[in-house]
Amino acid sequence: MRVLTIATALLFAYASAAQAFCGFYVATTDQKLTNRASRVVLVHQDGHSIVTMASDVHGDAKQFALVIPVPTVIKRDQVRIVEPQVVEHLAEYTKPRLVQYFDPDPCPARDYGGLKMVSRMAPPNPAAAMAAPMNRVRIEAAFSVDEYDIKVLAAADSNGLIDWLNRNGYRMPQDAAPVIGSYIKQHMHFFVAKVNLEHMQNNPSGFLRPIRVAYDTDKFMLPIRLGTVNADGPQDMIVLALTETGRVDVTNYRTVRMPSGVNVPEYIAEKFGSFYDTVFDRQVKQAGGSAVFLEYAWPIGGGMQLCDPCSSMPMDQQELVALGADWPSQPNMWGQPMSRGFVTRLHVRYDRAHFPEDLQFQETPDAQSFQARFVIQVASKRRTMLTCAAGRAYRDALHLRWRAENATLAQLTGWDPADIRTAMVAYWNRTREN
Amino acid sequence: MAALGGLLAVGITQFGLEASVAQLCVTGAAALATQAFATKAFPTKAGAWRRGGWAIDWRSPVISSLSLTLLLRTHDPLIWAGSGALAIGSKFAIRVRGKHLFNPACCAIVTLLLGTHAVWVSPGQWGALAWDAAALGLAAMLVLSRAGRVDMAGFFLLAWGGLLAARCVWLGDPWAIPLHQMQSGALLVFAFFMITDPRSTPDSRAGRLVFAVAVAVLAHMLQFGWQIRQGLYFALMTVAFFTPLLDAVLPARRFIWAPRLLEV
After folding, report:
1. In chain B, how many H helices and how many E strands?
2. ipTM rounded to 2 decimals
3. What's the CA angle centered on A184, arms A182 and A190, to 5 degrees?
4. Which of B180, B184, B222 is most worth mutating to test chain A (most A CB atoms within 10 A of its CB)?
5. For chain A, how long is the longest CA-to-CA vector?
6. Which of A14, A129, A370, B106 satisfies CB 3.0 to 4.6 Å to A297 for a cystine?
7. Quick one: chain A helix, strand, coil %, rounded to 5?
8. Distance CA A227, CA A153 (A)
9. Is A250 on the interface with B (CB under 8 A)?
10. Among all residues of chain B, which has the CA nearest to that of A245?
11. What torsion, rounded to 10 degrees, do the Cα atoms A362, A367, A44, A311 define?
């Protein structure tokens, strides 16, 4: 069977909205901020970490506040603002994808086929709100970076810090005391940020851009514990790790690869977002709720094959540098400078019961590519199918294929095979050539 | 060994481990070949040149290969073979007073981690095993009780668990954290199949206690202080240097595998 084209691209929304950002969004008032899925870009190498946090906050940005434990004091020049498109691009580039291959007309009379790009965007899920329920406090640094007012705090005890936060308009629940106490004993500092109201007046879009923090630390980890305090339910986070050479692995939870390369019925093209959400939900349940999922792992530098298929344009060097992935380029076989880098996309749905510990990472030397990729084999829709022997054989093969696709889909999603069959038939009737 | 094989089977089927039967075969073949060659080159009591043919002790290579397949990750089949050969080779090459110094599998893991940029260990690959782990642990105990080294796993797990618990109390963390840390599959493989190696641990029980506690303390420091994720293996290798000293200070009868030879 000839593969005619590859088409791709999709977007999906995450079924359960994240409420806390890396576990640390807090609202300054009772106003609810909604936040679909936090995205964190993590660059780590040789005791140096650069973390970019992007959120998709819906609500009054003035109410936004952020509390993150960090291993060192952060100075003004260690904080930068990253344009949201950069993080968005990286997320687009690495997201799970749907590819389509087209069957040729079994009884060709005229030229048919051709490239078709499919772009599917799932409707955003109504995101759950952040009810984030989040003295001796020393302000080690205080500065503003564009729309953010930032302070770096050191505290001797958790209650003092919680009091300070609450007095200064960060809502931090008393339940967070043990977690904060634990971070204090591990010599962590607290990076807290609020929106600079003056700056926001000049910024009518009210959009908050990703904030990037760099620090020297051996700790290759993400603090998620604060965000699980008082959370209503599990939260989603996408970790986009940029490393020089290899895949990033979680060392204290299981890292599971998402299904990939499986054939699903054609009609999934129309609902890829909700399909992927269902598959993800099911994977989370099958893993007992305590695994981290690998969705993408691929060299990101100027190699030969940057993606297959590409769901968006590859990241350019400036974008990678903006995120902190700034490795010296090496000449390729033609002597042209070639940038290096490897991106790993991990998707985690976490709550306190299943993720008691912060996420710990390691970079492995594994540079093999992986992507969560689902395949649609588009059947020939020609009415003339039964006019030739090859066409009749094709139809029989098609029936077998559909049965297999139905079984795969049922197994991936838990949907009833009878319902899937109904949907497949309906789609066939609707899309068949008149 | 059955427990280790079972763990591998469970791992491949239930956890989609990247470990493969191919890796086991390649590692195992290399380990057995090295054992055969080395037995021929350096005859010892355990495996001797006999009756014109030769006989090798197959258990140590098989156990080492299973451990390596469970823990060591790489895509390169040459390194699979290399790991088996390194493991068994180290037994013959690095000996002190007629006893090999390092656990073969651990030696291969540490050498490859430090010496190449092609292997890794995924401590999280097993997730939290909980009850399956307990069952396997028990199975392993039965195996080890025959080898007379089950105490080692106990000493080590108690010391390691004690340190985690102490850390938890000090930080004011919930107990869920040390419990989660104790359920690591990689930890159990280490405790039951690596540190318990009867040939590379001190001969006396007191020596083994000191050894196990030292490994736990050092590994804890490496893991939490220096953020070295493979702290366990580095700690075992480091403490192994002191085995001859422990044997000298606390002498006891040496463990010898009951001869069970494979006639080839």
Report:
1. 12, 7
2. 0.81
3. 120
4. B180
5. 85
6. A370
7. 30, 30, 40
8. 18
9. yes
10. B117
11. -120
